[in-house]
Amino acid sequence: MAIRVLLVDDQPLLRTGFRMILEAEQDLAVVGEAGDGLQALDQVRALQPDVVLMDIRMPRMDGVEATRQITGPGRDGPAKVLVLTTFDLDEYVVEALRAGASGFLLKDAPAHELVQAIRVVAAGEAMLAPSITRRLLDKYADHLPSGEDEMPDTLHTLTDREVEVLKLVARGLSNAEIAADLFVSETTVKTHVGHVLTKLGLRDRVQAAVFAYESGLVRPGAQ
């Protein structure tokens, strides 16, 4: 079955461009469009898309609040949110990730990256590009813990290996890369990641990465 995609952007020309790219793929189907967050909520309820391609800055309701209402606590619909950002202009990407977005992508990303990101998010994974994540978290470094603060109690629920896995997730490594780094199987890594998400009450790898930085477990620029 084709992945059902809803396009949310206040610029019609951009939506047209995204539609042309996505409809060229046999496994993707654009089921609707919205020009702001309020329209997006209506379209999500009516169309039940698998992935919402969400702009941040829009009139009436921005992408952060729309994401929160689509994927927040108590929501059990299928929709995953992939945030579109211009990075240098958008100041609320971290808030969108906290709100439940499954990842973010630059608006000027090549077409094949857009297509792949939608497939990754639809499969239940997170689109966590290491280079963009590092730049983003460095941008917010002044607002993050110094690393000298006391760690949250929730971190103490993790085993030593789960903490190792969380640190590597925060660096943007895939399951295969983590497996190679720790000399274990990908299945074992997937199990550890699942335990981390469950114990910390997190939705996906993106929120795990944000948590790792906000808790002081990982600091911007640290290896």
From TrEMBL:
It comes from the Bacteria. Keywords: DNA-binding, Phosphoprotein, Transcription, Transcription regulation. Transmembrane segments: none annotated. InterPro entries: CheY-like_superfamily, NreC/VraR/RcsB-like_REC, Sig_transdc_resp-reg_C-effctor, Sig_transdc_resp-reg_receiver, Tscrpt_reg_LuxR_C, WalR-like. The keyword Phosphoprotein applies. This is Response regulator. SUPFAM superfamilies: C-terminal effector domain of the bipartite response regulators, CheY-like. Residues 172-199 form the HTH luxR-type domain. It holds the Pfam family GerE. Coiled coil: none annotated.
